[in-house]
Amino acid sequence: MYNFTPRRCTSTHKIMYKTKEQAQTAARNSYAERGVQLWVYVCEYCQTWHLTSTPPIHQSLGLEPRNGRENRSSGRSSWGGKPILSRKKGFKPRKH
């Protein structure tokens, strides 16, 4: 039987995919075989594609990607960098 060992990134130790299509195929296979939803991204170290279980920030917040454009109504970008806290009256976040 043929045993294939994939190449791994030296910085992140994740499997390296040469193209986005290869990474997306691997993500689909992972979902079909194990039920694990994965996303693809370009590694800043090796410039190849990797898989991650962390969804992109605009999807996890329920926002549409704006491609760096500012929100014209408020004059601020769509993602300010701060976590969205509850707007319930009297809400105070816990101190850690």
Number of strands: 4
Number of helices: 2
The coarse silhouette is elongated
Q: Which blocks of ≥5 consecutive residues have pLDDT under 50?
A: 68-79
Q: Gyration radius, to the nearest Å?
A: 19 Å
Helix content: 10-25%
Summarize the structure.
20% of the residues lie in helices and 12% in strands. The chain is built from 2 helices and 4 strands, in the order αββαββ. Mean pLDDT is 77; it is low at 68-79.
List the helices and strands and how they pair.
Blueprint lengths: L19 H15 L4 E4 L6 E4 L4 H4 L9 E2 L4 E2 L19
Antiparallel strand pairs: 1-2, 3-4
Explain the overall architecture.
With 96 residues, the protein is of the alpha+beta class. It is built from two helices and four strands, in the order αββαββ. It has helices at 20-34, 57-60; strands at 39-42, 49-52, 70-71, 76-77. The strands form two sheets. A two-stranded antiparallel sheet has the order 1-2. The chain is elongated and about 65 Å long. The N and C termini lie far apart (52 Å). The model is unreliable at 68-79 (pLDDT under 50).
What are the key terms here?
about 100 residues; two-stranded antiparallel sheet; single chain; alpha+beta; 2 helices
